[in-house]
Write a structure and sequence with these properties.
Mean pLDDT: 96
Number of helices: 11
Radius of gyration: 27 Å
Shape: globular
Structural class: alpha+beta
Strand content: 25-35%
Bound molecules: (2R,3S,4R,5S)-2-(hydroxymethyl)piperidine-3,4,5-triol
Helix content: 10-25%
Number of strands: 38
Length: about 725
């Protein structure tokens, strides 16, 4: 028996950010609980007065609000951790031992809390990394033991939190290809609500690991208490939301333990992915701006840096192109005013040419018929034309009809005795295997070694994992976890060697976006659905969690809207084009060229400023979003008609947000289609106070379906 790690007195541990507090308490018996999560107190000494543990059972010995709920001992609710010890015993108890705050820098602190089982040599460290100015906390745990044999981790969450709000509204997201980020908001009832994924790759495709919970009443943009959570993990995830009998909400988030019991050897440690959260008592808008700021500063590659406007050839050509056609498109990029030409799928494969999505994936050699002079000649062509060159890859996947598969049938994920099962005619490579990791790294490395001026990578991932099995792994229960570890190892190597190259995280859409992946990428592809009427909604929902600079929005031929509408919508993030420039009418081309030039003068505000959602497309006949620079002197407002009903439009002025009430602003319309004059009188100026209280009518209607307004301080 190990000495009982009881603490002589209660210890209260507040984690403070600029506006919020997360407070832990270790009780006298060593139970560690979450006693508060919300707006911080003015006097930190008063956290000692916050009521402590919320007991379960009639012996009052264990808490509902455990900071990391173990199972098999005194706990009867959903656990954060479940283990089978080396002696076959299933019980775990975790008691507080000590804690330590480390200052990472002037804005970031790290709290670590040591927990120990009183009976077994089994320890857990809980980590809470807090970002003061952004009000964001990242939480994860590290699990270790020194038992005589292996321990089986049956469940191993990243975080376990406790909210007190009496009533809770969960806003969650579901989706599918071309329908990503479909929101649903509903009141949580007693019991457990689970959001999870078992897809292996593209883990966020059907359900997103990002969610929000309003406390008391559903939060609006500017009012109400709201918690945002998101798991930084690109594999199977699981979030359990348990409303307990005291009407408090237990949140347990981490890797999905589905088919993934993990064998932990003595002395080894298991580090969980990070669960990220923020809280606002001033509505969803504040919370999203906190998260966006945090992401730009701490997560995204070059989040505060520059991006390039690109022309992609996917929808212009699909798989059907050759050097001459591409040379034309490269020239079109220049004509349009784009900075980069991005060559998409279809450039590789010889024995099995990649002429459609049924063959060639995995054979990363240029197709000799389409590109007899190779990629390098295209890179040169781009250079001579004055644009950069980028390329599409999908290096984690193969078509069974490929030379790769003929050579390495053991490198794909499939069940040895079962029929292969495909998603988009392809199989997933076994990234748990270091040789496969080398291969995937090699695909990227080779492209850069051959073409040192290559300026952009679009990394796609179109299949989920069926028939999960690795010939490399001895323990198949580790497969899903080792796949993700393998993926991160590859991305880590790429970033070590090519730290700044822009890379787009694409998954046949947004099925893979999360903040662990975005650590390696500059941007993501929200959806293959580029119909602007749909994109307004999809981008609106992503914007709660991801900054505009990370959202690749391309103008395509999807939808029925005119090119102005499509471009205006794409301008709300990282603008790109995927159209046949040579088919544009003279006016359409002129419009696009002028829009790109407007965009370049505003991009810094769109990418790095504050974003305010003014009028929701879900609740109105039109949508309105604004972006403002940190100095509050310049900004842009995008307005779109979303209803096709007769007489729809912006009948009332839209109240702006985030302005300085004392400053005067002039508003003028930009992105006007050639020959169309504005209804907005651009010479008048208004105080910020006026614009925020009375507002300004963008005059959106069926004749003006998309209106972009730029505002500027008048001195
Ligand atoms: C799916 C992506 O989302 C598209 O943009 C395109 O790159 C295709 N894959 C290519 O196969």
């Amino acid at each position: 028996m190990i000495p009982h790690p009881s603490v002589a007195q209660e210890t209260t541990i507040p984690i403070l950010t600029e506006n919020n507090a997360l407070v832990l308490r270790a009780g006298k018996n060593g139970d560690l609980g979450v006693i508060f999560l919300g707006r911080k107190l003015s006097n930190a000494a008063e956290y000692d007065e916050v009521p402590g543990m919320f007991r379960q059972g009639d012996d009052y010995t264990n808490s509902l609000n455990a900071a990391y709920t173990p199972s098999g001992a005194r706990n009867l609710l959903e656990p954060a951790i479940t283990v089978t010890h080396s002696d076959g015993n299933n019980s775990l108890d975790l008691r507080y031992v000590s804690h330590r705050f480390t200052k990472v820098d002037e804005n970031v602190s790290l709290l670590s809390v040591e927990l120990k089982d009183p009976v077994y040599h089994f320890d857990v460290t809980l980590f809470y990394k807090s970002y003061y100015r952004e009000d964001v906390i990242e939480q994860w745990s590290e699990i270790r033991h020194r038992e005589k044999g292996n321990v089986l981790l049956q469940k191993y969450a990243s975080a376990n939190l406790y909210l007190k709000g009496d009533r809770y509204w969960l806003k969650q997201y579901h989706g599918d290809w071309a329908r990503e980020m479909q929101p649903e908001e509903s009141q949580l009832t007693h019991g457990i609500k689970t959001i999870d994924s078992k897809l292996g790759t593209r883990a966020n495709l059907f359900q997103s690991s990002s969610f929000m919970i309003s406390l008391g009443t559903p939060a609006t943009e500017d009012e109400g208490a709201v918690f945002y959570g998101s798991l930084e993990y690109s594999g199977n995830f699981r979030v359990d939301l348990e409303l307990d009998y005291l009407n408090n909400l237990r949140i347990i988030a981490g890797i999905n333990n589905y088919a993934s019991a993990y064998t932990l050897k003595p002395g080894e440690s298991f580090v969980t992915p990070v669960f990220l959260y923020t809280f606002s008592d001033k509505g969803k808008g504040v919370a999203s701006r906190q998260l966006q700021r945090w992401a730009r500063t701490y997560k995204l590659v070059d989040g505060n840096g520059d991006r390039q406007v690109l022309l992609n050839n996917w929808e212009a050509t699909y798989f059907d192109f050759n050097e001459t056609r591409l040379a034309e498109l490269i020239k079109d990029s220049k004509k349009l005013g784009a900075d980069l030409f991005l060559l998409d799928d279809g450039w590789f494969g010889n024995k099995y040419p990649r002429n459609d999505d049924r063959a060639g994936l995995g054979d990363w050699q240029e197709n000799k018929i389409k590109l007899p002079n190779g990629i390098s000649s295209l890179v040169r062509e781009a250079q001579n034309t004055g644009v950069k060159f980028g390329i599409w890859i999908e290096p984690e996947m193969v078509n069974p009809k490929s030379e790769f598969y003929e050579k390495h049938p053991g490198w794909v994920v499939k069940q040895p005795a079962r029929a292969e099962h495909y998603f988009r005619n392809q199989l997933v490579l076994d990234l748990s295997n270091p040789e496969v990791q080398d291969f995937v790294f090699g695909v990227v490395d080779h492209l850069f070694t051959e073409n040192p001026t290559l300026a952009y990578i679009k990394w796609d991932c179109n299949a989920v994992i069926y028939n999960a099995y690795s010939t490399h792994l001895r323990n198949q229960s580790h497969f899903y976890i080792e796949y993700v570890r393998g993926l991160y190892r590859v991305l880590e190597r790429i970033r070590l060697k090519y730290p700044k190259v822009p890379m787009m995280l694409c998954s046949g859409g947004g099925g893979r976006v999360d903040y662990a992946a975005l650590k390696y990428f500059t941007e993501f592809w929200p959806s293959d659905n580029t119909d602007p009427a749909e994109r307004i909604f999809i981008q609106w929902e992503y914007s709660y969690f991801y900054p505009a600079v990370s959202s690749s929005n391309h103008v395509t031929d999807w939808g029925k809207q005119p090119v102005k509408f499509r471009t205006d919508v794409a301008m709300m993030g990282k603008l790109g084009f995927d159209i046949v420039v040579s088919k544009l009418s003279e006016n359409d081309l002129r419009f696009c060229q002028e829009a790109i030039s407007n965009y370049k003068s505003l991009k810094d505000i769109i990418w790095h400023g504050d974003q305010y959602r003014l009028v929701s497309p879900w609740e109105s006949e039109f949508a309105s979003l604004m972006y403002i620079n940190p100095e509050r002197t310049r900004g842009v407002i995008f307005n779109y008609l979303v209803s096709s009903r007769y007489g729809s439009g912006s009948k009332l002025p839209v109240k702006l947000k985030g302005l300085d009430p004392a400053r005067k602003y002039r508003i003028r319309e930009i992105n006007l289609y050639p020959g169309i004059s504005s209804l907005i009188e651009g010479e008048k100026s208004y105080s910020g106070d006026f614009l925020m209280k009375v507002g300004f009518n963008p005059q959106v209607n069926s004749g003006r379906t998309s209106v972009v307004l730029q505002f500027e301080e008048v001195l």
